[in-house]
Amino acid sequence: MAKLIIPLLLLFLLFVFSPSNAVSYNLVSFGARPDGRADATKPFLRAWASACQSVRPSTIHVPRGRYLMKPAVFRGPCKSRILIKIDGTILAPNNYYAIGNAGNWLLFVQVTGLSVLGGTLDARGAGFWACRNAGRNCPAGARTITFNYANNILISGLTSINSQTTHVVVNRCNNVMVQKVQILAPDQSPNTDGIHVQFSTGVTIRSSGIRTGDDCISIGPGTSNLWIDHIACGPGHGISIGSLGKDLRESGVQNVTVKNAVFTGTDNGVRIKTWARPSSGYVRGVLYENIIMKDVKNPIIIDQRYCPDNQGCSRQ
User: Fold this and answer.
1) CB-based contact 177:155 (threshold 8 Å)
2) Tell me: the pLDDT tens digits for 162-193?
3) Which in 79, 120, 229, 268 has the greatest CB count within 10 A?
4) Candidates 61, 167, 230, 237; catalytic one
5) Could you tell me the CATH superfamily of domain 23-303?
6) Catalytic: 237?
């Protein structure tokens, strides 16, 4: 069934965003300059507002060049579908405090029928990691691109570089396709998960390469019907379910498939980690198939006594 849904979704999105059917908004025409220095945040939000109010499907085009963006929230619901076509690079400010206290750099909330195609997101996370590694008083850090309460989302051909924390977050969403993405951060960059999914159903991640300092893909509570295939992971900490069971009342994880994945030089391969505490959480229906491990320290881990700091660990 999943193999049928994927091409049907892609064909539908291609139809609704055909050139004859879509209204186009060029980011430069809203005042953005592709020099990497002028602040493009307000022009991008104005373009989003126009597209969101359009009753016809819309395309926001980000031409070639470098566009400086501060934290931005793109809110729905919108009147029709929106395609963001990125041919350039969206760049975070060099000062890591500029996005570090926001929690999210680029946040999409309550949108339906959004596609993000191509382009590069460069969060310039190195300064933030240096602050963390030095033990200084640092901001909490920002996730690069987050989708909250969103439905029918396509992310294709996107490259994410040097996120402060997690690169891509899918939270409380339905029917999300992530394909042909590249996620890049040094292997020593702290807590830079590639893709994190939680409280979401019907998410597919495929044909992507993830090289980062933490989990390539992390799967949190409330995830169901997650399909992962043709992933190249490494360096990083592998594909991880959890940690789960930290709270007494917690949603479970079920129907997770990981197929045709290659792990190279990772700390872990596939992992399930749960706290040894009373919890309503659970893990069911997990399939790992055709997995190749190359120089992986811990190929398969199922740990039901997860306690990373070894302090106050339950023995239950």
Assistant:
1) yes
2) 999 999 999 999 999 999 999 999 999 999 99
3) 268
4) 237
5) Single-stranded right-handed beta-helix, Pectin lyase-like (2.160.20.10)
6) yes
